[in-house]
Amino acid sequence: MFFNRTNINQYIKKMEQKNQLQPPVFNQPQQSGPQYQPRVSASPMMDPVEAVKTCFRKYFDFKGRARRSEYWWFVLFVMIVSSVFNYGGLLLPFLSYVGMLCSLLLLIPQFAAMTRRLHDTGRSGWWVAILAILYVVVLVSMAILVAPYGTQLFETTDSMVQAEMMADAFQSNPVVATVMTGSALLGLLLMVITFIFTLLDSKWGENKYGPSPKYQ
């Protein structure tokens, strides 16, 4: 190849242009990468009417999951019903018996809703089963203790007389009294534990009890 001064100068000029550093460019728009998308989204809170209807519809349903709004709206409903009959019983005594009947009828859906609420936090429903057993033990023990007094304990309105009858009942049957007291204390402890569990948020995604009712 024939080289002369002109060719060499052109070659040098091209190499200089090729190797010349480009000035920096400021305020360049940044390329936006893929935006973070949440894996789950929370559905709207269940309203009170829907929550109460759901708990009655699932009266005997101890499977599946229940979010906080479903459970706590139903608990509020039960408290209102109990309060109405308790205060109404002061004016009309027969309302007290109606209130007791309603409380018994509402026990099953309450335990069912609590079981589903624990399932929603990933915990076993055996907590509720043990609590229900202790509740029955306390009721049976109380019935055994007051049985010798028949209706006398409930007919009198004197609190001192009622206290004397209960003290005599505890002294007459110390074994049953001890069982009732121990069951009541243990039940109170379990109530505090399950109360804390029911305050926890739903576990997103599906667990062994079913899909999440809150996070879709």
Which keywords apply here?
216 residues, mainly alpha, 65% helix
Average pLDDT works out at: 85
Strands, count: 0
What share of residues is helical? 55-70%
Relative strand content: under 5%
CA distance, first residue to last residue: 75 Å
Overall shape? elongated
Would you tell me the structural class of the helices and strands? mainly alpha
Which parts are unreliable, with pLDDT below 50 for 5 consecutive residues or more?
A: none
Biggest β-sheet, characterized?
Answer: none
Number of helices: 8
Rg from C-alpha positions? Answer: 36 Å
**What string gives the helices and strands in order?**
HHHHHHHH
Describe the secondary structure blueprint for this structure.
Layout lengths: L4 H15 L28 H10 L10 H24 L2 H27 L5 H21 L5 H4 L3 H14 L1 H26 L17
Helix pairs in contact: 2-3, 3-4, 4-5, 5-8, 7-8
How would you describe the overall organization of this protein?
By secondary structure, this protein is mainly alpha-helical. Helices cover about 65% and strands about 0% of the residues. It has helices at about 5-20, 50-55, 70-90, 95-120, 125-145, 150-155, 160-170, 175-200.
Short description:
The protein is mainly alpha-helical.
